Amino acid sequence: MNDPSQSRTAVSVPHSRRNTDSLIMHANESFTAAHSEGVMALYAIPSGDRSVMLLDTWNEEREIVDFVRCSYLGLDNHPTIVKGAIDAMQRYQAFHWSCARTRLNFGLLAELEEALSDLFSARVITYTTVLAANMGALPLLASGHLTGGNKPLIVFDRFAHATLAHHKAVVAEETKVETITHNDLNALEAFCKRHASVVYVCDGVYSMGGQTPVKDLLTLQERYGLFLYVDDAHGISLVGETGQGFVRSQIGSPFGERTIIAASLGKGFGASGGLLMLGTRKQEELFRRYSIAYAFSASLNVAAIGAAMASQALHRTQELGHRQRALSERLKEFDKLVASPQQGSSLPIRTIEFGSDQAAILAARYLLDHGLYTSAIFFPTVAKGKAGLRVCPTAGHTSAEVERLGRLINDGLRIFRPPP
Questions:
Q1: Pairing of strands 177-180, 198-203
Q2: Does the pTM of the predicted model rise above 0.90?
């Protein structure tokens, strides 16, 4: 067998693109502590609304209230969506087809993508996950085929989700990559002035709280032709009459050819999978032929397709608005009790800083002992020294559950947060 090194020049990826060894070295102690305290990798059985039956190390079940799941509208166990999954399985008498989508697809999947295209007023392609959608999209962006044949400078926001930032090394094989400070539009505009074609990669709603300034980005797009690639996984369904999401609801129609939105069919949408919103059929054709996660992988399974079909139908009813308003009320109730950087935001993620990793882990354990499950967050999820709790009040929680959470978090802050 020929040695590949003799037939092509080896490419050295800069260390700044990948730092897995350093990441593990700095984070492993805290991950070990979190697992030891029993606040990570839990297994449970649903018991209704936001409660689950947790199976502990003695194989004894106990009910807890979950503030970890990102089902912001409480749709992930909605009976209509569950029924949609079951009905699809019964109709197709199959669960999964193991073939690339360029070969054979379930008929119901075509119905789903057309329904979602109508719902979001864009050309929609579904994927098994948002990670898969991003993996398929970013190399195509780097190729220049979506930017008039000119390979663009691709600029990542410093806080872009790991499922975006992971692909920097691959993208850098195709074109130049830069990273800017979070939401630094001055730096982004400077790049736009110096380069004929620029793509900005960011989140719509950031997983640790906060959002991208959509209107300001649209101004840069109009002024310089900036191409926007926005992962709005945490913003979908929460905003808009049909749940267009945080980003799509701020972009007029037609969608245009200089924006792509990635989104989740889980989280607020309540089903499973990911999607891309594209502006033109020409772009759609390109993705259906050359997107790695499309052309060389399989589609959503039948249950996921059926669940998403049921959810998109629900998104066209008054229940969506009722749940959006219920979410807003739960957030207001939480914000009256607990101070956070996101206090007053209509978006559903709250982070409470404890400082040290140990304090955050012990606080999560304290809440779990009192029947509430929250996420202990520490490096690399957040910066060193910024460890804390991440909580997701949802439309499915009761006011009493949110009040209890707020009271216990404040107790935890008094007990575990180091003095200034």
A1: unpaired
A2: yes
